[in-house]
Design brief:
The complex is a heterodimer of chains A (205) and B (401). With 205 residues, chain A is α+β, with helices and mostly antiparallel strands. Chain A has one domain (37-186): Glutaredoxin. In chain A, 35% of the residues lie in helices and 23% in strands. In chain A, strands 4-11-10-7-8-9-5-6 form an eight-stranded mixed beta sheet. In chain A, helix 1 (2-12) crosses helix 6 (187-204). Chain B has one domain: YVTN repeat-like/Quinoprotein amine dehydrogenase (Methylamine Dehydrogenase, Chain H). Helices cover 6% and strands 46% of the residues of chain B. In chain B, the strands form seven sheets. A four-stranded antiparallel beta sheet of chain B has the order 3-2-1-28, with no helix packed on it. A four-stranded antiparallel beta sheet of chain B has the order 4-5-6-7, with no helix packed on it. In chain B, strands 8-9-10-11 form a four-stranded antiparallel beta sheet. In chain B, strand 16 (240-245) and strand 17 (253-258) form a beta hairpin. Classes of the chains: A alpha+beta (205), B mainly beta (401). Chains A and B meet through strand 1, helix 3, helix 4 and strand 11 of A and helix 1, strand 10, strand 11 and strand 15 of B.
């Protein structure tokens, strides 16, 4: 029922979602907006390599909702916290039967020069990542720099590994629809967003 | 591997519990260690001067401590630089102007003492239908900017959301029954955004004596933050300005300063989930409270009385019945306050708006907060903004880095 309501909210837009008695702010549809998840930007396209050697492109992932973030295995602050939160989310999505077919998690290696596919696979296993649904992806250092810059996070000389602890929610059309801060991550809210977007993606297929 | 992960997680959680900077969006990365530079967004007081971002050295061991060490001009006088804010990653500083409707985006990560102008948003009226960017509130990967006016200088105001690099995402305009806009603050753990109300460009552009004192708001809007949906319209004394949520996790209450009511108002959520307001403190006739700040331990509110030249410290142990704890007179017309992350220092400027200032003696000063919460002016820290190399400047908003 909750899934249905949220999907309805996303499809019908904010007008129907509002309490009729509440004051209504006029929303300018500068970009098409679907309820609570505006189109923030187009997610950068990529071709990367999974830990099992498969080539994975963002085009391959189209049609599925995904949560994307950046990690490196030596990271002692934000990355383990981000990964722990994605691990919790993975369990909840699996329980709802959404993991894999409709929703993916993707952790992009921030330090490919140091993090080999084997090192990433060990790191992923440490967080219980399901290799079919939680991808650890790796590119060249140049490709990694380009990707994080496209997400608005520039690598700075001497502090290449300092990065934003953000998790991006990407819809089936490769558009960023929400950005979560690791520090203020609300699992139930994120789950609601993912379930809603997956419902929309499901109808579009 | 799992043990290492658990240990790392525990250390991260402990580190996060320390006192942190307040009155910034909770999404902004906190400053590690003591401040080194103070950014002061400055209005050229001489019509031939340049508006710009001044950088004051506030690193205690530095030979140039307490001096303006850099000034980044943004153009000829007349923009009315006002407020500014960091993006969530603290890599960029967004600073805007109330008369020219511009936002300047600076890089402050590469060399914090030398901000570098990256981009100027100078078609905001056409882009958003709004005028007078005021509050710069970081969201993850985005900025929420409130605007005091519609593009024609009238009403309604509203807010717009941009990516951190300055691309527009969406715009919300205030509803007809509460068209005035001013500040915005989010309490993520209770999913509420509160916005407040001032006066539009058609009014604030005029000398104070010509202001229409009835052309101002007296409303706070309570929003479902996630859905950007207005839930309630609350009322206060006229012109509630800053929105300061309690820093206690899960507590859905806070305070605002009514500029024309000379008062602090409490707002908060009741057991039924509905918000209400009540007058919490009388600041004294003629105070004109221009800024309201908090101590990081949620113990005190600091209010600047622009007309009576005081900084008042209010003990908010009882949130609905604050008690006056101390009064400091830092100099004439104190305005913006900036409390350090350890709660031990408060930087103070003294220009409100070029149309409202009644003294031409502009400065940045420093107050120390004692262990007893009493305020003491630092006699050695006095940055004279009338003597900048580019001529006199009105010092307004501040940020530390």
């Amino acid at each position: 029922m909750a899934v249905l309501s949220l999907a309805g909210l996303l499809l019908l837009g904010p007008a129907l979602a509002r309490d009729a008695s509440a004051p209504v702010a006029t929303e300018w549809r500068v970009h098409p907006v679907e309820g609570r998840l505006p189109i923030i930007r187009t997610a950068p396209a990529y071709v990367l390599t999974a830990t099992d050697g498969r080539t994975v492109s963002s085009a391959d992932l189209a049609g599925k909702v995904r949560l994307e973030t950046f990690v490196y295995t030596r990271c002692q602050d934000a990355c383990p916290l981000v990964s722990a939160k994605l691990a919790r989310l993975q369990r909840r999505l699996a329980a709802r039967g959404l993991l894999g077919d409709r929703v993916l998690l993707a952790s992009i290696a921030l330090d490919p020069a140091h993090d080999s596919p084997a090192a990433l696979a060990r790191y992923a296993a440490g967080f219980g990542a399901d290799p079919r649904a939680w991808l650890y992806l790796r590119g060249t250092p140049a490709e990694t720099r380009r990707l994080r810059a496209a997400y608005g996070d520039l690598a700075r000389p001497g502090q290449e590994l300092a990065h934003a602890d953000l998790i991006f929610l990407i819809d089936g059309l490769n558009r960023v629809r929400e950005i979560y801060s690791q520090r203020l991550f609300d699992l139930e809210q994120v789950l609601g967003d993912v379930v809603g977007l997956a419902a929309v993606a499901g109808r579009a297929r | 591997m799992k043990k290492t992960v658990l240990l790392t997680l525990a250390l991260c959680l402990l580190a996060g519990s320390a006192l942190a900077e307040v009155c910034l969006s909770p999404y902004v990365k906190r400053l590690q260690g003591p401040e080194k530079v103070l950014y002061v967004w400055s209005v050229a007081a001489d019509p031939a001067g340049q508006d710009g971002l001044a950088v004051v050295d506030v690193a205690l061991p530095s030979a140039t401590y307490g001096q303006v060490v850099n000034f980044v001009p943004v153009g000829p006088a007349g923009n009315e630089p006002h407020h500014m804010g960091f993006t969530d990653d603290r890599a960029k500083l967004w600073a805007g102007t109330l008369f020219s409707n511009r936002i300047f985006i600076f890089d402050v990560a590469e060399d914090p003492a030398h901000p570098r102008l990256l981009r100027t948003l100078d078609t905001l009226g056409e882009l958003t239908g709004l005028f007078g960017p005021h509050t710069y509130y970081a969201l993850p990967g985005r900025m929420l900017i409130t605007f005091l006016s519609a593009a024609d200088g009238g009403l309604p105001g509203g807010f717009a959301e941009f990516t951190n690099s300055g691309d527009l995402i969406r715009v919300f305009k205030n509803p007809p029954e509460a068209p005035y806009q001013y500040d915005a603050a989010v309490k993520p753990d209770v999913n509420r955004l509160v916005t407040s109300s001032f006066t539009p460009y058609r009014n604030y552009k005029k000398p104070l004596a010509q202001w229409d004192m009835k052309d101002g708001g007296n409303t706070l809007l309570v929003w479902d933050f996630k859905n950007r949906k207005i839930l309630q319209t609350l009322t206060t004394d006229p012109v509630p300005l800053e929105v300061r949520w309690s820093l206690k996790p899960g507590r859905a209450y806070g305070w605002t300063n009514s500029a024309l009511g000379d008062s602090i108002w409490w707002f908060g959520q009741g057991a039924d989930g509905r918000f209400s307001t009540r007058k919490a403190a009388d600041l004294g006739k003629g105070c004109l409270p221009a800024d309201l700040r908090q101590s990081p331990d949620d113990h005190y509110l600091y209010v600047s009385c622009f007309l009576t030249s005081q900084v008042q410290a209010w003990d908010v142990s009882d949130p609905v019945k604050p008690r006056l704890h101390d009064v400091l007179v830092p100099g004439v017309q104190p305005n913006m306050l900036h409390v350090t992350g350890d709660g031990k220092r408060i930087y103070i400027t003294n220009s409100l708006l070029s149309t409202m200032d009644y003294s031409q003696n502009f400065w940045v000063r420093l107050a120390h907060v004692g262990p007893d919460g009493r305020l003491k002016l630092d006699p050695f820290f006095n940055v004279d903004f009338t003597k900048l190399p580019g001529g006199p400047h009105r010092a307004h908003d501040m940020l530390l880095n």
